[in-house]
Amino acid sequence: MVYRIGIIGFGKIAQDQHLPAIRSNPNFELTAVASQRGLTPDEARHTFTDYRTMLREVPELDAVAICTPPQVRHVIARDALEAGKHVLLEKPPAATLSELEDLRRISGEMRKVAFTTWHAQYNRGVDVARDTLAGRRVSRLLVTWKEDVRHWHPGQQWIWQAGGFGVFDPGINALSIVTKIMPVPVFIRKADLLFPANRDAPIAADITFSTGAENADLRGVFDWRQTGPQTWDIEIDCEGGPRLKLSHGGSRLEIDGSLVVEEAPEEYPGIYRRFETLLDERRPEIDDAPLRLVADAFTIGRRVPVEPFEDEPGKAS
Known about the structure:
Elements: E1 3-8, H1 12-24, E2 28-34, E3 46-48, H2 51-57, E4 63-66, H3 73-82, E5 86-89, H4 97-110, E6 114-116, H5 124-133, E7 138-146, H6 149-152, H7 168-181, E8 187-196, E9 204-210, E10 217-223, E11 231-238, E12 243-247, E13 252-255, E14 258-262, H8 267-281, H9 289-300, E15 302-306
Parallel strand pairs: 1-2, 1-4, 2-3, 4-5, 5-6, 7-10, 8-15
Antiparallel strand pairs: 7-11, 8-9, 9-10, 11-12, 12-13, 13-14
């Protein structure tokens, strides 16, 4: 079956990742795009600036991929579900856990698929790491997730607004890997959240995790101020071995120093293959574990003020 899909929000992630993934999957046909800025790909037969108009005037749509900032995602997803469309939710799937729980409820009532996409989970190295860790006791976890916000989010102000997640916009990718591969549930025990004086979202975070096990060293360091090479690493030591290192966002895996997996990331094609399966089976898939960890970090975290951040060094915002 070929599913007719629309994209709501045609920004960088939709252009760079969703569009190529849809183009490469013969079981999806891009039928419509809604973009407030009027950006559209050539193959979309219908284009709109208002997603509500799209939902009303293109009744043949089977599903929509929602690629907007998280602050507005709940309302859009709710409207799409109530219009009888299946929904694919870019990460993070909503601004709050309550919003995501509401989408779970509406999805069930409407008998439509709601799918939370944690793209970093769709690397083979992540699956191999999960299988390797199964049944083992983790003694050490170190997440190092450092990148340059000016490179990845140039001029995007929504990420600095309340509900924009700040450094957890990329950091939630690491947490989605952690929640998938760890053999037991992980909790936030302590968090220092570094807020620029002129922003409402953190630019860095130092996290202490817990699994309830004594003497385990479980930490995470997230920073949006790194220039040069970017760092997306997760290191794990188990009692009695082995030692694992996931790097390059999960596309590279070493076990005890030996390279086990190294592949080009195929995250978004994997997401759409999964969505196809869920649509075939009419089965929703809502994973809230990564979002819960972010929410917990904000709940118990200590706010640490740091110097103002400007999109262009030396210029006022």
